[in-house]
Amino acid sequence: MSDYNAPLADMRFVLGEIAGLKEIADLPGYEEATPDLAEAILTEAGRLAKDVLAPLNRTGDQEGCTLENGAVRMPKGFPEAYRLFVEGGWGSLPFDPEHGGQGLPWTLSIAVQEMWSAANLSFSLAPLLTQGAVESLQVHGTAEQKTAYLPNMISGRWSGTMNLTEPQAGSDVGALKTRAVKQDDHYLITGQKIFITWGDHDCAENIVHMVLARTPDAPAGTRGISLFIVPKFLPKEDGTLGARNDLRCVSLEHKLGIHASPTAVMAYGDSGGAIGYLLGEENQGMACMFTMMNNARISVGVQGLAIAERAYQQARDFARERIQSRAIDSKDAGGVAIIQHPDVRRTLMTMKASVEAMRALAYLAAATLDKAKRAPEAGERAAAQARIDLLTPLVKSWLTDCGCEIASLGVQVHGGMGFIEESGAAQHYRDARILPIYEGTNGIQAMDLVCRKLPLGNGDVMQGYLAELDATVADVAASNAPDFGQMAERLAQSVDALRRSSEWMAQAVVRRPEAALAGATDYLRVFGLTAGAVYLARGALYVQRQSGDDGIVMPGKRYVALARYFAEHLSVETAGLATSVMSGGDAVLMLSPGQLSA
User: Fold this and answer.
1) Domain containing residue 206
2) Strand pairing partners for 160?
3) Which tens digit of pLDDT belongs to each residue from 513-523?
4) pTM for the model
5) Which entry of 114, 309, 356, 439 is annotated as an active-site residue?
6) Local structure of residue 175 (DSSP, 8 states)
7) Is residue 439 annotated as a catalytic residue, yes or no?
8) Of residues 124, 126, 121, the one with CA closest to residue 429
9) Fewer Cβ atoms within 10 A, N terminus or C terminus of the chain?
């Protein structure tokens, strides 16, 4: 497995010239995010990712996690790496200084998260889940709960989890059976949860579980679910750890990938009831959990970007070194590095152009989240919140789908060696496969996009987004840059495909919901390809407009080439996909469930 090196030049370019980090740093409360500080954070994060986390990726995959006498043991080196992570304050970047956070923008934090996930996807899941739990506590917790939990969770001394799934209730959360019975100032929790990421481990001092459960008289379905804070060790009033709570890890799942991430089956209340504290109000658990899940969905999308970057680096390095066959334009019978062969170059271009499109979308989404939190005017915050609501299912789904596709291409570049575990390419592919599944499967995200997000503001949110895309296309067309090739025409076709399929989808959701949902995944892909193409074009426009060296480190003409390639080779799929969206539903539904199962 090749080393990981954070692509700092590419990351700086997207942060500065596409996501607008300087503008974000002008928002109230983000004044500390100076260019010098941002540069120092990126550099040091890259060093930790390369020197500490990446070397554990392969060994952690091979060793895995073990359950011994009721306690989970992490692979060798993970507790020490986690200690360095906590000592560096890396988990505290975007959180409120009132509780020990550094108060820095999510835009910068997302870039750092990309490094953790690319270096070691299994490790990165611990801070990801803790981050989501912190967000939910910040929004819904009482003053006492915030004081008791946030400082230790923001520092990383305590980690957090999200407990939704049960054996009989996968994505149908309303079917859960875990019970919560009120007793004095707390509740007694009984039940079992599965697929709990980092549900138990020996890295943090305490683990704070966010558990969905149902009180005895609660309404049926999701309307009757509440959320509870259930710590592994009960904190005392002075902040020290007290008695062990009535919860335990029953077993660890044996998974396709992310072997160094302990995915636990958790049992609550085997000895009478685990003590839990209500977060928010009774029967409002889904609202509290969605605060956590929406945060996690952006971060999971970033994991798709990260694994794609790691797979690209692995494939690129292999293609530079692997000697095979003569060059097509040479009479010399000697072999050349396979990166010389046109089809390998095409594959690497597909991988790299997709990575940059994914990065642009992820960082722009994070910048939008910062505006929703910190813009000075209420109207600006509301508009930004509507935009991030629209983009969240796109970031989660399109980026994770691309992560799987690019990891697969990475195996392909390696040829037969890619299918052999020793090369490392197979691990990226295995690790990537979970990403479209958890935090709401991508099919569910597509349904959410067309049923809930497309109608936002009676369709005005989507219309405003399309207008912004149109403006970039017009700028590309007006530039007349020779290096842009057919970029303007292809972008216009993609935006047109997104517009037509959006208009059709908005009507079909009301009139023919089955046909609409049959095309929802294809629609989401149209959206992702179009957004990615336009955002790459924005970066290419910036490069084209620079007349000289202005002191900004940027990818230069390489970025223009990637933007052009994406527009001319990848986003052209949107026209065909739009046709499938608007006319393919009948074919999807042609066979009944009975006929499909025959």
Assistant:
1) 54-88+120-283
2) 208
3) 999 999 999 99
4) 0.95
5) 439
6) G
7) yes
8) 121
9) C
